[in-house]
Design a protein that fits this description.
Blueprint (H helix, E strand, L loop, with lengths): L5 H8 L3 H7 L4 H21 L7 H10 L4 H15 L4 H23 L5 H24 L9 H14 L20
């Protein structure tokens, strides 16, 4: 990805370099974030269509259990290794930051104007972080390519950890989150 230039992208899209920068002032992060947003749109729409009384993490769990778009997995197989590399750290952060803002906006639009902006933003940030953690976990396990169902399985595990308050194995049920440094 480090070899892709604005001129390459503009030429591939059949537009001028100036038009490219008018639409994507921050360059490649904007292009990738918009591309990813399109792939995640059906997932966000399914999440927003869940019953209003359903707990948000339960809704997310049920949406993920129905599967993620194959095109999303293809995108992650194509761009994921570069985004997770040291050289892609800045780009990775920019893409996921944009995804958090986008998902929060989608959630606010679907839920209505009375939705607490902090709720929408923190929920979107949590989902994006869980997604990122599942993707990193799959990569850390040495998988050269994400296979169908792998990301969903890891994401469901991450959502379960979140729903259970990130308790350590064997820790008794408690109302507070406990970390080793606080014991």
């Amino acid at each position: 990805m480090g070899r892709i230039t604005a001129a390459d992208i503009a030429q591939s899209a059949g537009i001028s370099r100036r038009t490219y920068f008018n639409h994507y002032p921050d360059g490649l992060p904007g292009v990738l974030a918009d591309d990813l947003a399109e792939l995640l749109r059906p997932v966000a729409e399914r999440l927003a269509a869940r019953p209003a009384h359903e707990q948000p993490l339960v809704a997310a769990e049920r949406v993920v259990a129905h599967g993620l778009p194959a095109e999303l997995i293809d995108w992650l197989n194509r761009f994921g290794p570069q985004l997770l590399s040291r050289s892609g750290a800045y780009l990775h952060g920019q893409v996921w930051m944009r995804q958090t803002r986008w998902l929060a906006q989608v959630l606010r639009e679907q839920a209505g104007t009375d939705t607490d902006p902090l709720f929408a933003t923190s929920f979107a940030g949590t989902l994006v972080s869980l997604f990122d953690a599942a993707h990193r976990s799959a990569s850390a396990e040495g998988a050269r390519r994400l296979e169908p169902g792998t990301l969903e399985q890891l994401l469901l595990i991450a959502i379960q950890h979140c729903r259970q308050g990130w308790r350590f194995p064997g820790e008794p049920t408690a109302d507070r989150l406990s970390f080793p440094c606080s014991r």
